[in-house]
Amino acid sequence: MSKINIPSENGELILTKSTKLVGLKKQVESKDMADVDAQVIPDLGGFEVVTLNPEDNVDDALDRVRAHEQVEVGTHVYFAEGDNRPVVATGMIYCNMADGVGKDERQVIFDAFALKILEDREDGTVVCTVTPKSPNPLKVAAALTKLSMVEKAYPDLDVPLDQYFMEPRDGLLPHAWHFENKGFVTDVPSFRLKAGADAKVKAAWRRLGNLGSSSIIVAVIDNGFDLNHPDLRGKTVAPLSISSGGATLPTGTRFGDHATPCASVAVAAANGTGIVGAAPNAKLMPLHGLTYSKFLTERMFSHCIRNKADVISCSWGTIDPRYRPGTEHERAIRKALTTGRNGKGSVVVFAAGNEGREYINYYANIPGVIAVGASTSSDTHARYSNRGNGLSVVAPSDGGWPILAARAGWDQGNAGMPSNKRYYVDGIDRGPHYKHFGGTSSATPLVAGICALILSANPNLKSSEVKSILERTADKIGNRWDYNSSGYSTKYGYGRVNADAAVKEALRMKNGGSTSAPTPTPPVIPPVITTPPRDTTRPTTPTPPTPTAPAPAPTTPTTPMVTGTNLFRFSVSGQARAGFGLQVGVNNEFANVLKQVEQLERKHGLPVLVNISTVNGRTAFKILIGPFSTRAQADAAKRKMISQGAREPWLRPLNTI
Q1: What is the location of CATH 3.40.50.200 in the chain?
Q2: Which of 124, 123, 122, 127 is nearest to 110 (CA)?
Q3: Which CATH fold would you assign to the domain 162-510?
């Protein structure tokens, strides 16, 4: 099998090319193609993942389908070692040049790979995209990383993330025990719940005197919105299909059905029939498409900011360290947290995850995010719900009795159950539009809806204040010894969310009351570990081994690069701009240049040149090996340097410097 080593922020990623799957980016109005044997994933990084003729070599089959008039781009699909989720390269590359490299030099490198610059960011990150003349983006990133003029280059990848839905394992407003728990479910009196084990949502409505503000917008990012559902119809603002950037959301079984129940738990309308969400008057901003892609993640959260989402609900994520969110992922989410809502910050809510681990979803552990775990109808910890530092609160979900939620018109239900239990755990039919639902997938939009009620009570709150209110008004459930002296528990966070107490606090603060936030418990990021090989015959959730404490972060050096001797002997002579050189770096400090020149001469036994110029108003010293009369001589020197452990230098005609 063809393997390729890919640089990433989470360490080197070893990918193996699939022998069956390919990704196709087709024209919008394209029809089914005879060359496609089966459709696997409708949208992954903007590509439809399919299988082609199984009797053909995948390379030959892909070349043939690329020539089809309906196909704009065809790409290979990969798998990471020990993982059965497909990986595609979106074609974007995030690149940072070495300190001092000018735009003219940078352009020479990008032109060599036929890259087009999309964004030139203030922090030095350059976002590029491949063009039809570019090599495979994975190979481009790997080649760029080897160049001494490039600090880092990461290809933008997409991989299916985990939706935190748990099929109920243990039965319309009277069914909403998670809003107000009287100790039983209306049509199942024999199943006993714990009275009071709820989120106090009805009490919050009574305190507000309404069902929340219609000016609040809750964004739900997920797959499979049925916007024609009776409880969601007419609530939509600013829909987005993330991969295409368009406003039309795809529908049907192949595009998922998870978003519909999630959205209903948060904002289902109070229209006299069916169920009701925690914030029935709030509007719904549906964003279809779960993605790991940096570029598309930036698009989704920028869309939420631009269209004034007050709350962003995300019932998905990962605990796989290979796909932990990187700098751009975190920056996109932090930007929403700090600049959304005209600078007050959008409230961002993530599921802790359903793996039953002692650490939570990487996305949920981003500072400022509200990380939500699940509690049960008996006010106990739901065994599947991830635990660990960084957890904010828990909210009622299944594990005892499940939640009743909306279901998409194309939802096939639990195919492994008898027909009468496909949608309802007890087999009692509650209509064609609903289903039993649970997991941290259900707990998360419940908290998102409660955040909408908090902002209805006090729209001037910052996102950080909403998080603080949720945490300090939560009810302590479980055992006293589950909590530390600061009132924090790795099982429950600060406790089970209490909507009524949170709304009361928001109203108090609106009327001028001061606040005292709980002592924050620093989040613990799941360790970077290697996932062991798993059974790849069926999709599974990645199961890392028992974590060990992460290694301490390296300390930033406070001493200059130059150490040891600071006495150098050197002579200076001019050099004609003819022949070739091998550029190995750019530096702004003359003392460091001297040290690097001395090290290069000693290590490689080759002459060194220094070019002095001005880059962005600063003196820049470009360091090159050479000169060489011919390109062949320069190539031979380059091979020697690489064999001695050097990063690949950049071949430069001296007349271009």
Answers
A1: 162-510
A2: 127
A3: Rossmann fold (3.40.50)
